[in-house]
Amino acid sequence: MNRPQIHFLSIILLFLCELLFAQQQKLSDFYLIQRQYESLPENDAAALPLVGKLIRKAKLENNHTQLFLGYKDARYYSADPQVKLKYADSAIYVAKAIKNDSLLSSAYLSKGVVYYFYLKKYKLALNEYLKAFERNKSNKDPYYRNKLNYHIGVVKSYIGYYKEALNNFEEGRVFFEGEIKKYQHPNLMYGNQRGYLNTIHQMIVCYRKLDDNKMADSLIAVGLAGSSKNTDYKQEHSYFLKEEGIREFRSKHYGNAIKMLNNSLSELIQVNDFAWLTVSYSYLGRAKWEQGNTAEAIKDFEKIDSIFVKHNFVLPEVRHIYVDLINYYADNKDSAKSLYYTRQLLKVDKILEEDFVYLSSKIHHEYDADKLLQEKDKLQRISWIRGTVYVILLFIFSFGAFYLLLRLRSRKTVIGRNSILGINLAGGTLQMEGEGAFRMRTYRKTDIGNGIVEDVLQKLSEFEANHEYLNEHIKLKSLAKSFGVNHNYLSEIIQAHRGANFHLYLCELRISYITKKLDTDKEYHKYSSDTLAKMCGISSRTNFSKVFLQINGINFTQYLTKVKSEMGTTSISLNK
C-alpha cells in the first residue's frame, strides 16, 4: 500500500473515531448526572434537583429515551405520592409519543405501584397493571414479566384467591432465586434480591391464610436469614419480623410475639406501609389481650381504625378488631363508642365488598381470560410445529419403507401383485366404524375460578334440560351474554366439562334429541330429514345428514329403516 493510500485511510479512521467518541461523550453526560444521585435511597427528594437537570437536558436534546428514564427517576425519588403520580403520567406521555409498547407497559406498571404501595388504592392499581399487561405482549424481559406477575398476584391475594396468587408468586420466586445466584451489577442484584424477598413474604401470607403453617414457617426462616444481615433490606426484614410475630402468637408464645411485632413497627412506620402496619397492630393487640392486658390491646385496635379513617383502606384480615371494639365498649356500657365502631364496621364491609366484586371481575375477565388465550395460542403454535415435524418424519419413514418394499418386490414374488401391506391398490375405500350413539363427556377442570365454573355449569344444565339448543339462531356470544359470562370463559368451560367445542356441543345435543324422538315416537318417522333438521335447529338437510352420520355412525336413511323395522312403522312422508 502506497503512502497516499495510507494517508487517506488514516483520515477516514480519525473521522470515524471522532464520531464514536463524540457519541460516547454525549451519552456519558446523562450518566455523569445520574451517577451523582443513583446511590440515594428511594423517596429521597435530595435527588430531585439533579433529576430535574437530566430532564431539562433530555428535553433540550429531544432525547425521548433519556426523558422517559428521567421521569421514572423523578417518580422514584419523590416523597409525595401525588407528585409520584404526576411524574408517572409524564413517563406514560413520553412512551405514547414514541410509540414504544415496552416503555409504555413499564410506565403503566410504575403508576400502578404508586397506587398500590403508597396509596393502597387497589382498584386504580389493578387498572394500571392490566394496561401494563396488555402492552407487555412483545416484551421479552423476564425480570419485568415477573415483576408484573408479582403485582397481579398481590391483588389476587388481597381478594382471597390465595392458591391462584401462589401460582404467580412461585413463578417469580424461581426466577429471582436464579438471578441472585449470578454475578451481577450491584443495582441489578439489589432489584432481584428485593424481588425475591418480597415474593417470599407474599407467599408466607398466602400459606398462612391456607393454614399451611409448615410451608409458611419454613419461608419465614428463609426470609429472616436473607434480610437480617443487610441494612438495604430493612423494609423487607420488617415484613418477616411481622410474620415471625404471628407465628409466635399462633404458638401461644405471646411475650415473643409482642417483641417481634414491636420490632416490625418502626420500619413499617418509616416507609408508611400502613397496610401491613395494621396487621402488626392487630396481632400485637391480640397478644396483649391474651395476656390479660385488655386496655393496651384496645389502644392497638384503635390505631387500626385511625389508619382506616386516614386512608379509607383496610385489609380483610384485620376486620375482626371492629367486632372486638364493639363488644368491648358494649360490655363497658359505652354506647357511643360501641355505636361508632358499629358504623365503622359497616363502612369497612362496604369497601371490602366493593373491592372484592370489582377486583375479582377485572382479574378474571381482563387478566386471566387474556392470559389463558395467550397460553392457548402459544400451545397451539407449539402443537403445530410438533405436528409438522411429525408429518415430515412420518413422510421420510414412509418413503424409506416404501423404497425398501419396492427393493424386496424386485427380488421375490409376493402374493397379490396389486397390494402392499394388505392395501388393495386396484381400487376401493377404507371402511371405518362409527363411534355410535350420542355421548356427553367430562374432562378435567379448568383454571377458571370454581364459583364461575359452577354457575356456568348450572346454567348449561338448565339450557340442556329446557331444550334451548333447538333454537337455530343460538350463538356462543349470545348464550354467554344470557349467562352473564365472558364468551371465552363459556367456550373454555364447555370444552373442559362437555368435551367438545361449542359447535360440536350443539350438534351432539340436537342430534341426540332427534335420535331419541326417532327411537320413542313413531310420529317422527313420517318426517323428512329436511324437516327434522329444522326441528332440531340445524340449518340445512346436508349438514343434518352429515352430523347425524358422524355422531350415530350410520346415515339417517339407514337408521330410520332400522328403527321402523323394530317399531313396525310402515311409511315415510318425504314432504311433510
Automatic annotation (TrEMBL):
Q: Give the HTH araC/xylS-type domain ranges.
A: 454-562
Q: Which SUPFAM superfamilies match?
A: TPR-like (SSF48452)
Tell me where the transmembrane regions lie.
384-406
Q: Which UniProt keywords apply?
A: Membrane, Transmembrane, Transmembrane helix
**UniProt-recorded name of the protein:** Helix-turn-helix domain-containing protein
What organism does this protein naturally occur in? Answer: Chryseobacterium lactis
